[in-house]
């Protein structure tokens, strides 16, 4: 069982690294966003492998279901996709490669090599166990952490109401954007108006006759 978990961990870790590298190296920015979503999925799988179900579900729902979709909509609404095959790397991309590699070598490597990776000991008798799985987190939200949970919910509700009010104020100030059906209806009305216009009177004098009379 431990061998299988180790193999799965290595597979997910390699997948996350490959997806992260593809995110910053592919030329198409939409493909980069899709690789970023794949990396988020891999991190969620790692959480599930470590028996952190709540973090795994939160990773998928928040980062994959909300943040990534927001990024995709922002890309599609603000960027000209016809020029998405252009070079995405700046001329000084090597600086951006050296800095994280140095940080990784200075911070992560010593921590991994010197830290004692052991499971925490069980709690002593009489002490309640630590909160670990999703059921215990939900129970804690409804008991000892009920007041902070409700305060956070009220703050989010107030922020949402404020965003709606600001959006409606800006909507009244700016020009209304027509829907597709309204654009089609307006185009048909314009075509009908053009069709009902009287045709201009045709002159009885031909251009050749007019030039002959002038001569």
Please give the alpha-carbon distance between the first and last residues.
107 Å
Number of strands: 0
What is the overall silhouette? extended
The low-confidence runs, each spanning 5 or more residues with pLDDT under 50, are: none
Largest sheet: none
Could you say what the CATH architecture of the domain at 1-81 is?
A: Up-down Bundle
Name given to the CATH homologous superfamily of the domain at 1-81: NADH-ubiquinone/plastoquinone oxidoreductase chain 6, subunit NuoJ
Spatial extent as radius of gyration: 32 Å
Fraction of residues in helix: over 70%
Mean pLDDT: 77
Counted by DSSP, the helix tally is: 8
At the third CATH level, what is the topology name of the domain at 1-81?
Four Helix Bundle (Hemerythrin (Met), subunit A)
- Class based on secondary structure composition and strand pairing: mainly alpha
What is the CATH top level name of the domain at 1-81?
Mainly Alpha
Order of helices and strands: HHHHHHHH
Quote the beta fraction.
under 5%
Topology:
Blueprint lengths: L1 H24 L3 H21 L3 H26 L14 H22 L19 H8 L4 H28 L6 H17 L10 H8 L1
How would you describe this protein?
By secondary structure, the chain is mainly alpha-helical. Among the domains are: about 1-80, NADH-ubiquinone/plastoquinone oxidoreductase chain 6, subunit NuoJ (Four Helix Bundle (Hemerythrin (Met), subunit A), Up-down Bundle); about 145-195, no CATH class. The chain has eight helices and no strands. It has helices at about 1-25, 30-50, 55-80, 95-115, 135-140, 145-175, 180-195, 205-215. It is extended. The protein starts with a helix and ends with a helix. The model has no long low-confidence stretch (mean pLDDT about 75).
